[in-house]
Amino acid sequence: MPVQGYEMHLGVTSGPGLARPMLDLDGLSDGAISADGRVMGCYLHGLFSSDPFRHTFLARFGTAASTFAYEPMIETVLDSLADDLEQHLDVAALLAAARPPRLTRAA
Q1: pLDDT in tens, 54-65
Q2: DSSP 3-state percent helix, strand, coil across the chain (nearest 5)
Q3: Which end of the chain has a smaller Cβ tally under 10 Å, C or N?
Q4: Is residue 11 pLDDT above 80, yes or no?
Q5: Count of H-run helices and E-run strands, the chain
């Protein structure tokens, strides 16, 4: 099934588990699964925030996921946070301060 997330990966992964990748990301193997299938991991962060993936993944183990809908909840929380920031902070001034200084040419 399609997955979504982001990868932060430093270093080199090695070992026999690589022969059993956890994910196929557009033809590239990611992660590993132990020989007995009881341990698996990958470099894709945010994987379980996808409601469809989480439900399908847990169903493989005979476990039902909760009815908690993560994706709509996180959007609501982020929208509320953005509203609070705009109300209590000078967001334009913060963004201006974060920009690199402009280079001026000497006359």
Answers
A1: 888 888 888 887
A2: 40, 15, 45
A3: C
A4: no
A5: 3, 6
Summarize the confidence of residues 35-50 as an average pLDDT: 88
31-67 b/e (C-beta count within 10 Å ≥ 16 → b): bbbeeeeeeeebbbeebeebbebbeebeeeeeeebee
Give the pLDDT mean for 43-52: 87
Cα of first residue to Cα of last residue in the chain, in angstroms, is: 61
Distance between CA atoms of residues 52 and 58, nearest Å: 10
Exposure of 30 by Cβ count < 10 A (0-12 exposed, 13-18 middle, 19+ buried)?
buried
pTM: 0.60
> Quick one: CA dihedral 65, 71, 77, 78, positive or negative?
positive
